[in-house]
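quick one, 471 residues, struct below
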Amino acid sequence: MKRVLFASAVTIAALLPATPAGADSLAWTRCGVDAECTAVTVPIDWARPDGPSFDLEVTRRKATQPSKGVLFYGEGGPGGPSATVLKENSHGGPRSDFDLIGVNARGMGGAYPILCPTPKGPQNDLPSSPEELAKLKADNAAYAAECRKLTGPLYDHLDTASNARDLEAVRAALGVPKIYFYGRSYGTLLGQQYAELFPQRIERMVLDSTMDHSVPDGAAFAAAEARGLEVHFDNFGEWCAQTEECALHGRDVHAVLRDVQKRAEAGEIKDVFGEPLNALTVDALASEVVFDWKGGSRTLKELADDGISGYGNEYISASETLTSVLCQDWNMQLRDFAEYQDLVHRVAQAAPMTRFSTFPRYVLACQGWPIANINPPKPLPGKSTVPALVLSSRYDLATVHPWAQNLSTQAGWGLLTYDGSRHITYEVPCMKGHADRFLATGELPAPGTVCAQLQDQRQEPQRVHTFTSEG
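---
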């Protein structure tokens, strides 16, 4: 049985008074690698602030130089353990000039973790009929119901908007009038939603490799992600033609992959257990290549020449934290098989080679999810008053560049582009320099500024294809 607390003084402090207390009201203890830890009590449901509550894990790392202020760190995810990575000193982003605060996302460890059973029973491939889609939905619904039963009422409130309100509770408990914010990957959505809810509380914000919460539905989400992988496969083909490090140097990698896909669909390529590759695994073949060009080229060559895969079949997986958060933050549900077929068509148009590979399949993991979409996507209400800088790689595979462009345009925020394929760009010296300068002084890079690709990064061709947001 989960321990559920009831509203306390710290919870009441989190109801966002007009003026901050002016002093840190928290009891800190030493923890981890030269860090300090504490807990802040917040309501499970922010619509019921006097209802059941739970403790958030919070970590602080004090500045090693004169501090410019308090900077909240947003780890990726979904469901990023920001407090944990600060405690372990394994975080990225700004370090020495700020007092860093990490707050674990809801359900991430502590006294109230997300609990789910080990998936068992039949596993689902890409649906090929209304009956198979219905089975996928039923299996996902049953799995989520078990997670909900094991976890308790917090399971219905894992969305990022609730996490943003949690941050404000921590800020109030710290007694600071304004904070700085650095978020990376899915942690950027936390910053966006905090800025929308509490714009007066942010001094400056940097969003590194950003989400775009205006993406309207699952088809648009899947097509954008698929297009990112497709472009990177094109870049892989160009790299392969340029370097002998590629195991397929001298061959048309597009033709090789197309032939492998056709043979796999005909049942001619087996998995490591001797079973024919299923549809989902066939579509995942391109992902094996784009995430590791040198190793992926060897894998693709072995598939083409030997017809044997070194791994087992993949299936649609409703993972514990990722799916639980995604399905509450995005409009992923498909009404029927016709809508699913439209999604598949849009993905095929956007990515004829890479198809339904890694990121687009997140949409299928949300089908049948019984928890309400309580934080649905929507365009920003207008230009933001929060000073912010968006960092983005032109060829990021996970948080695609068009998302950063769209967010920058909607909010009126600065945009700095890295001309490469890194996911998370702060460690690039040029990107770091601009980001640090902005946090310290508010100076944005000139519009259209691009940081050149690092020349020592393997697997990035010197000329790359144009990213589009179509599809």
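The chain is about 35% helix and 15% strand.
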